[in-house]
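User: Let's play a game. I give you a shape written as tokens, and you guess the letters that built it. Ready? Here's round one.
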């Protein structure tokens, strides 16, 4: 989760965004072979405009995907938004 917070800090301070979606996705085996990454975290403005993207060569995160929302300096789960 530390990487999520670092990414949020970069996205918020480098751009004027009060709303950010954060999507963690474990890549398919085919995409892993192509990109060299096992997973990626994508930060968007909520309208599918990518603000930042980070690839990770290895992860032990237990889920295949997860979406979080960062609104007005608060990180929220989908059930909280």
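Assistant: Ready! My guess for every position:
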């Amino acid at each position: 989760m530390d990487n999520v917070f670092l990414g949020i800090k970069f996205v918020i301070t480098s751009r004027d965004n009060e709303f950010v979606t954060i999507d963690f996705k474990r890549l398919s085996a085919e995409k892993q072979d192509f990109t060299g990454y096992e997973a990626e975290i994508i930060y968007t403005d909520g309208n599918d405009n990518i603000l930042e993207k980070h690839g990770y060569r290895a992860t032990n995160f237990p889920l295949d995907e997860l979406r979080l929302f960062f609104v007005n300096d608060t990180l929220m789960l989908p059930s909280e938004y």
